[in-house]
Design brief:
3-stranded mixed beta sheet; about 500 residues; Cyt_P450_sf; 18 helices; about 50% helix; iron; binds protoporphyrin IX containing FE
Length: about 500
């Protein structure tokens, strides 16, 4: 068992917050057969799919089964399923407490080839007929090359990251302010997508989107369509039933629907990202094709996709917390540590903002932007949950649903279901809790390396979110956020 797993499983001598105060499995915990089942062929998976997408929704789907089986580990089906996903096996073993979930990070016992979104994998046509980094197992030498390349991109772009972010934020909030002044409220979703596309393209591709008017005005929409078409069979929209089941969850949409846009993005990266492509070839031994399609995946799927989910959730959490006095506390902390001028914002300055960071972590805990993680047993092994030990057979697919795992009452002891913005502050013992914050497919205290599948941007994502919050409280004395819109703003005097 790897060092990582040993740490996650812990021992009786670890801190009281350890998810595993029990002795090693063999001595005390009962070995149980994994409860639950897959139902009748075809019918079982379809019933589960309808529950998942329609009658229950993902959270209730997992919670109900956890209660029914009195276990955080059980067998079930997850979508997509029959009738038109014939090659896809929907059978999984759900792992829903912190201890059980942490097995997903142990690359000695699980493998992660082609399981980014489960047994279903979107066609490689969406990624230039290549399997990009996120679909590669750590045993694949290509994974090492690309993962190291992605870590290098972030290291090198760290010098322009904050100035690019601040300049893109200036133009996003200028637009929102103008709209609020004109119409009394402004939706932030699309301005935010434009801001993300512009900022991330500079940092990841090293290119300025404004060199191509079409990419500058529509690049974010091109990425939205490319993402949507790939992921529709796995996404719960929850408002269009039963049309959603018939038209969105029953079959895969073909690449040609977005081929034209994707090719425009490829051409843009080939033309404007020459420097980063050259580095990938000379320092990481990647071909031009491998580099371009991986860059587009990192830009479009990992970065733009991740932040497009995360930042709106962050704003919505801020809106929800207005009445708790959080805004005043954040503003005080931001201005105390960094004054009122966005020029003074830096990675170092936000690292000093404990409450801002805690708020960001709590948002990631309750709303992990990538809710489900999958991994396949590399060999037979014993999986330990808080309550029992289960025999897992080589080839079985584990599925962790983080929104439930992150409410594990044995770890997040204080009101696990409630948003506590200061949960991760030192005063509350929050630094220890970072060991169990898993949004990046690994603990927040871990390190993303070529030997694991943890998000390459594990450090920079929460820091960017903290900068986003700090910027907001430097710029405004007061802001009201509600239902995806900004309704009132009072700029800093
Ligand atoms: C809010 C933003 C982001 C979120 C929520 C996020 C989340 C994740 C998650 C959950 C995974 C693991 C997926 C799995 O294997 O199950 C992952 C992998 C990855 N992420 Fe991120 N990510 C974000 C931003 C970024 C950014 C900005 C980069 C830029 C370099 C990045 C690069 C990667 C890469 C390269 C992988 C694949 C790691 C590997 O295969 O070893 N991510 N991300």
């Amino acid at each position: 068992m790897s060092a990582m797993m040993a740490r996650m499983i812990g021992s009786p001598s670890t801190t009281p917050l350890s998810p595993s105060p029990q002795p090693p499995p063999s001595s005390s915990q009962p070995v149980r057969a994994v409860p639950g089942g897959y139902g009748w062929p075809v019918v079982g998976p379809i019933i589960d799919r309808l529950d998942y997408f329609w009658f229950q929704g993902p959270q209730k789907f997992f919670r109900k089964r956890m209660e029914k089986h009195k276990s955080t580990v059980f067998r079930t089906n997850v979508p997509p399923t029959f009738p038109w996903f014939l090659g896809v096996n929907p059978n999984v073993i759900a792992v829903l407490d912190v201890k059980a979930f942490s097995h997903l990070f142990d690359m000695e016992i699980v493998e992660k080839a082609n399981v980014l979104v489960g047994d279903f994998m979107p066609s490689v046509k969406f990624t230039g007929d290549l399997r990009v980094c996120a679909y590669l197992d750590t045993s694949d030498p290509k994974h090492t090359q690309i993962k190291n390349f992605s870590l290098d991109i972030l290291k090198r772009s760290s010098a322009i990251w904050v100035p690019s972010l601040v300049s893109a934020l200036d133009s996003m909030w200028d637009k929102i302010d103008a709209e609020v002044a004109k119409s009394g409220s402004a939706s932030y979703f699309f301005p935010m997508q434009q801001f993300l596309f512009s900022f991330l393209t500079r940092c990841i591709i090293g290119a300025d989107p404004s060199t191509s008017p079409e990419i500058a005005s529509s690049g974010h929409i091109m990425l939205d369509k490319w993402l949507g078409v790939q992921l529709l069979p796995t996404i719960n929209i929850g408002i269009l039933q039963p049309l959603e089941e018939l038209f969105l969850h029953s079959f895969s949409y073909p690449f040609w629907l977005v081929k034209g846009d994707y090719n425009k993005l490829v051409q843009f990266v080939e033309k404007e990202g020459k420097e980063v492509i050259k580095r990938a070839q000379t320092e990481f031994n990647l071909t031009e094709q491998e580099t371009v399609h991986n860059l587009l995946f990192i830009l479009g799927f990992n970065s733009f996709g991740g932040f497009s989910i995360f930042l709106p959730t962050l704003l919505s959490a801020l809106g929800d917390q207005e009445s708790t006095g959080l805004h005043e506390k954040l503003r005080y902390e931001v201005r105390q540590k960094s004054g009122s001028n966005s020029n003074s914002l830096s990675f170092d300055s936000v690292k000093e903002m404990e409450l801002v960071q805690s708020f960001v972590y709590e948002t990631l805990r309750l709303n992990p932007p990538v809710p489900s993680q999958f991994a396949r047993a590399r060999k037979d092994f014993k999986l330990t949950s808080h309550d029992a030990v289960y025999e897992i057979k080589k080839g079985e697919l584990l599925c962790g649903y983080q929104p439930l795992v992150m409410k594990d009452a044995k770890v997040f002891v204080e009101s696990p279901e409630t948003f506590l913005y200061d949960r991760f502050t030192k005063e509350k013992g929050g630094t220890e809790l970072l060991n169990y914050l898993y949004w990046s497919n690994g603990p927040q205290t871990g390190s993303a390396t070529a030997a694991n599948k943890q998000c390459a941007a594990k450090e920079i994502v929460p820091l960017t979110a903290a900068l986003f919050v700090a910027y907001l409280f430097q710029r405004y004395d007061s802001i009201t956020i509600s239902s995806g819109s900004i309704t009132v703003v009072e700029k800093a005097k």
